[in-house]
């Protein structure tokens, strides 16, 4: 979308200065979380401003290929490295492989079933899951339930067949993760073949609980 004839949104001071130094130019704007080397990819560009012949900013153009980062979406700062990895993977600003890697060696909390052992539940899309919490903040937000602390490396062997891990269901963004991905991360090898419950790859659940596919996850 181009905004030339309608009123422009407020123009940042640094963009005004850049326009004065470079008349008749397009001035790209990069998402504040992009930190890669070299020229930013198209998906990290929020849009661009255009300066006129006199250096004044005359137009703004949205980038339809832009992927908003967690910061641009207004998500809270991550509570821990797992939360950070999920946020980055869900927006395409980080690799999906970082999520199971962040779980390796970490103590997590799982709700306990009446007969003992990890509680089984269903995700909003009906997938059988074992809810898992990596931060006390997310655990408290789930309510007052019985829970146990367990190493993530050990938990995967206790996940019932056909179930997947539901990482931090109360976080701004959560992930359904096949236990095999964690086992592979523990071994430092290639991911195992996904179970039938995860045959479409890892999925992300946003605040609005709309399933979307996580980039590279």
Automatic annotation (TrEMBL):
It holds the Pfam family SseB. InterPro entries: SseB_N, T7SS_assoc. Residues 98-184 form the SseB protein N-terminal domain. This is SseB protein N-terminal domain-containing protein.
């Amino acid at each position: 979308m181009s905004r030339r004839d309608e009123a422009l949104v407020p123009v940042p001071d640094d963009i005004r200065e850049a326009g004065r130094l470079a008349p008749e130019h397009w001035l790209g704007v990069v998402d504040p979380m992009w930190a890669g080397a070299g020229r930013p990819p198209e998906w990290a560009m929020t849009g661009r401003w255009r300066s006129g012949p006199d250096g004044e900013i005359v137009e703004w153009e949205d980038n339809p290929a832009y992927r908003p980062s967690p910061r641009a979406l207004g998500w809270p700062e991550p509570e821990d490295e797992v939360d950070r990895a999920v946020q980055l993977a869900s927006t395409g600003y980080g690799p999906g492989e970082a999520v199971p890697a962040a779980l390796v060696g970490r103590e997590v909390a799982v709700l306990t079933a009446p007969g003992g052992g990890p509680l089984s539940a269903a995700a909003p899309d009906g997938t059988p899951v074992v809810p898992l919490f990596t931060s006390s903040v997310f655990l408290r937000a789930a309510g007052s339930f019985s829970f146990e602390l367990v190493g993530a490396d050990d938990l995967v062997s206790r996940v019932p067949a056909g179930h997947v891990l539901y990482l931090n269901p109360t976080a701004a963004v959560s992930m359904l993760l096949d236990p095999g991905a964690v086992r592979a991360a523990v071994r430092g090898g290639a991911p195992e073949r996904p179970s039938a419950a995860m045959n479409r790859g890892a999925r992300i659940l946003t605040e609005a609980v709309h399933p979307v596919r996580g980039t590279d996850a």
